[in-house]
Queue: 2 jobs
Job 1
Amino acid sequence: MYDVVISGAGPAGSKCAEIIAKAGYKVALIERDSNWRKPCGGAVSSRIFKYYPQLRKLDYTPIFGMTIYSADYHQLRYSWKNIRDYSINVDRLSFDNFIRDVAVDTGAEFFDKNISFDYIRKNNKRVGIKTKTSSGTEEYYGKLIVIADGMSSKLAIKSGLREKWNINEIGVGKCAILEGENSLDKENMSMFFKPYKGYAWIFPLDDKRFNIGCGTWPEENLNYNINYLYSKFIKDPFLKKFFPQTNYKTIWEAAYPVPAVGVKENCLYEDNLMIVGDAAGFVSPISGEGIHPSVVSGNAAAETAINALENENISKETLKYYKFNPNIKKIIRNFKMKTSMINFFFENGGKFLSNMLELAEKNDNFRDQVINMFLFNQIPSKDYFLKIKTYK
Ligand SMILES: Cc1cc2nc3c(=O)[nH]c(=O)nc-3n(C[C@H](O)[C@H](O)[C@H](O)COP(=O)(O)OP(=O)(O)OC[C@H]3O[C@@H](n4cnc5c(N)ncnc54)[C@H](O)[C@@H]3O)c2cc1C
């Protein structure tokens, strides 16, 4: 019998397992396949170092800046060197296994090649998780259950807390790790907003490798084919200056959906159960950033679980503190602000976003406001939006 059984060892599940195990509780961390590379751009903000200081010792190229492009290639380049810590771009295969190892090192028991598919129920109560393995079915009993198995979680739906994602609640992305000579600035990431509701990116990984991809937000999923958008982007003549060669080696490529409407705040907890990470919508609605929010949610759920176990009360009355954790409240608030802005920026085929970057090119004060909004989550003034709307 475990104190906590966690389904899914991505950023949310691994952080949750680590913190609970560190507090001395018995944790089972269940993973479908540790050889799976989560489809992802892999850009991680420097805020991750607070949760994983160990990452500083790894050989990641420090990222000190970002260039944002509008659909018609107005651009804003920003460097945070000397202002804040550097960010990193990670390959999710090694990154996920690294943070799993951190959880195991603190005492969590890791069960790989286990596909969670249902709850074990006794007297109408959930008392654990059933998994499928190559040799049959396994059962993991636990006082508390944490659902951390991502966007496609079956257990989140079976919990009764939320329904299947509606097509209007998800975005779709396709990305690849490519390798070859290039003239990318290795310390800078690029985001290309598009005339459709979505964006593309190039995130350098090292001297030769980079993550490249694109995604659509809700409404456009049915209007555009993601494979078409991806091949159009990688052949974009504007990118020729970065990629002089004709052939780049594809190390890996994949497409995957992503939650796009912010945190499902009414679906986060139940008696003896919490949902964390993508499974609960912890992804930023404009940038698609989900690694850091998922880690934060895993951490908050872990703190809540420890408190519940200490007090021997695992009812929803105790678990509600997960939702009221200040960091979770901050994420929910921030994502709501971004959701309300997303329509504005993509209106008129990306015209407002283009106006915004053109205004930033001309006026330093306005440029600061754009940076504060994109990178430091500050809510812009009404005047800011009015300027963008009436510019052209
Ligand atoms: C195309 C794309 C690009 C993205 N780019 C970025 C980016 O650049 N930066 C960023 O911060 N975020 C990005 N995101 C979002 C980010 O990938 C997610 O928000 C983040 O991975 C969520 O972490 P998680 O732990 O909740 O879920 P996941 O990372 O999905 O982890 C879930 C884990 O559960 C396992 N699992 C699944 N089902 C089962 C099961 N039945 N039983 C057991 N285990 C199971 C999986 O194998 C996986 O290891 C991107 C997403 C997409 C789709």
Job 2
Amino acid sequence: MMRRVSLAAFALLAAACTRVDDASTARALPSITTPSGVEMVLIPAGEFRMGSDRGAEDESPAHTVRVDAFLMDRCEVTQAHFEKLMGENPSKVKSSAHPVEMVTWVLAALYSNARSRAEGLEPCYDEETAECDFSRSGYRLPTEAEWEYACRAGTSGDYSFAGGERALREHAWFAANSSKTTHPAGLKKPNPWGLHDMHGNAAEWTNDIYAEDYYGTSPADNPRGPALGKQYVVRGGSWKDGPDVLRSSHRVAENPGFADACLAPDTLGLRCVRRAPEPAPIEAGAAETKPDEGNAEGASIDEEAGASRTADPAARPAIEIGARTGDEATGASTDETDETDETDETDHASNDEPPASPALKTGLLYGDIYLEHRTPAGFPEQPSRLRDILRGLEESGLIERLVRIDPAPAAMQWITAIHSPEYVERVRAACAKLGADDVEYLDTADMPISARSHEVALAAAGGVLAAVDAVLEGKVRSAFCAVRPPGHHALRDRAMGFCIFNNVAIAARYIQKRHELRKVLIVDWDVHHGNATQDAFYDDPTVLYFSTHLHPFYPGTGAEELTGRGEGKGTNINAPLQPGDGDDAIRKAFQEKLVPAALEFRPDFVLISCGFDAHVNDRLGRLAVTSEGFAELTRIVKGIAERCSSGRIVSVLEGGYTPENLASAAAAHVRALME
Ligand SMILES: [Zn+2]
């Protein structure tokens, strides 16, 4: 006879998933609804045969495993619940009842912690080391053994139901019936223990590090994965997979941060588990029988379920998206821990702020020196632009959560990697002869300079290099550079269009030469075409330049036919836009032109030429991108970075000439970087 746990202490809130009950099975095990509104099934302790000798090599040898009792989400975590706790919804296909996807392992762990905090439980994950403390009371990802045990629910075949592939259609959303998307969690028939979507819909992260030969040596009691390794195990298959991947014992090794992902990120979701509740009070219950009494007999709610047996902390990668830099990334900003207290987290959950984590911080590069480049009254490119941006970051409450990076002048060798020494000298000499209040013009009528402009331009380029260093040293995951003068029109030998040195192009060469990374993606969403960036890398296959811009428009370049030259053929992508084009048009260009090219190119680092002059009602531009539109573009670029470059992004201010737009667009952009 099963025992039923009385859980009167738990508030019975509405279940977060829209599950369809199957009377014969869904009530087979007791369940609770947690204070944050998630229904969880109490999985009894028991033994089962893990793996399969008929499946892939890494599924064997099949072996007997015992797991302690635990609570497991009845459904995959929905977008609604994820957003409620995290203030963001990373999913590609947005629909609140669908499982959340585009979730990295790191984000899954952070969600687990946020959920623990929201319910007054002890977070399981150390946010510096990614170590899971199994003795804590809070939420975590299931071990591989827990996952397979719960999925099998007492069965021993390929799936948790009879009928093989044909029956899959009743139980799972997968390649044959999903129409290439997720579906609301809990719609399909549950497994014998009442768990929905264990096969298909979103694939699910486990807590275990992957090793192909792990089953040969794993312990029989509560195995928790090997201590070493860079990939984690994903289970259950997704809407995109064929029947084989949906099998109960199928294992996928996946990078925790999307870099070198085998699976598409929009298939990756999660469900949580936590320690079974205390055994008392227990009342004799008239629980229903279930298909396989063998596993349920003797089921006990064992207080020892969470007995601590943590992995070697040194063996775990830092909890940040940095798998490919795991050795050098050390969990950024360890000295900034003020944002991880519970109060702060709770605030985040309630006011749509992205979650705080020392290891997932974004940097802000800014210095007052950037105000010292003077332009005439009435000129669009003014020092006040940066004050507008800072105001936007302050008013949105973001600024104190950013890691400040200070500018430093760029060493001449990096400037001359893009510009001729003669030109650099010409800039210096032209500024040197100016008095404190003078404004002259360099090369063109749209390039005013003042006495300190040369020094400021060196600091702008140097600041971007400092931001690159901060990212590659693991101090921040990404950075936004509020710099001026801007750069993407500055040619090798000539100033142009408010630009003196091409900050982004200089950074690209610096990344390659100083940090020895091979491939750089430059995404330029300024309303103007970055003619100088195109020029700098036009025949270079190691830099992919992608630009959306109004065309024809200043500076006249940027035709779609210009795709690169020689070895660089195909690594220059111009996506011209029409006057009035807004969020939909620019998003389409990003999704259809940038994303496929970038995923094929596989950059090691991503730079953004971040011009806010594509904003609706910009003083100079004629496009209609909204602030939220810039956030969307940011998320798309982040998706690329997370898949290819361990999330490494440095965004560099280019244009943007209307104060209110600068404030709101910068806040939206930086917030999206921080998510
Ligand atoms: Zn511009």
